[in-house]
Design a protein that fits this description.
The chain is α+β, with helices and mostly antiparallel strands. The protein has six helices and eight strands. Keywords: Membrane, Transmembrane, Transmembrane helix. This is DUF4283 domain-containing protein.
Length: 176
């Protein structure tokens, strides 16, 4: 067996006494910079049982979202990406225009709070539009749409303009 080099021996001696019980460091937050950065970004997780490449996500997002050169995508974990925008309005448009699908997978988009690490972001909830077909005219009410939507989760918005228009629509929409 060979002897460790002098550099390795020095490294071993420097780290031998370290433990998790040592004093913690007093780290300072740069909240202003972090807020500015997170205001221009979204974290997205693809709900799919296989890994999707950065190139695939980049190609689909650039085409679907129409950002020629104005979108930076950084992989964070398997099927989890940071989408960086140049303008707050672009970020807002993409976030509010969902839900999004890529390569047959649901893309859950979340704002990244500056005080959270990636593992603390909750990807278990995602708003989506629900279309309700086949209700007879006398059952096309906001209350009934809310009841149906509530079966799946929290209803955020019921989309219709007036009772008269509601009677002639082919379907009703509820976002939850």
């Amino acid at each position: 067996m060979t002897q460790p080099s002098e550099e390795v021996s020095l490294l071993i001696s420097k780290t031998a006494g370290l433990s998790c019980d040592d004093e913690s460091l007093d780290l300072e937050a740069d909240t202003e910079n972090a807020v500015n950065a997170t205001n221009l970004s979204l974290v997205g997780k693809l709900i799919i049982d296989r890994a999707v490449s950065l190139n695939t996500v980049r190609a689909v997002a650039s085409k679907a979202w129409n950002f020629p050169g104005g979108l930076v995508i950084t992989p964070l974990a398997i099927n989890t990406f940071l989408f960086g925008f140049n303008k707050v309005n672009d970020r807002r448009r993409i976030f509010n225009s969902g839900p999004w699908s890529m390569v047959g997978a649901h893309l859950v988009l979340k704002a990244w709070s500056p005080s959270l690490v990636l593992e603390e972001i909750d990807f278990t909830y995602s708003p989506f539009w629900l279309q309700i077909h086949g209700l007879p005219p006398d059952h096309k009410t906001v209350r009934n749409v809310e009841k149906i939507g509530a079966v799946l989760g929290k209803v955020i918005l019921v989309d219709f303009t007036s009772k008269e228009v509601l009677l002639w629509q082919n379907f009703l929409k509820s976002q939850g």
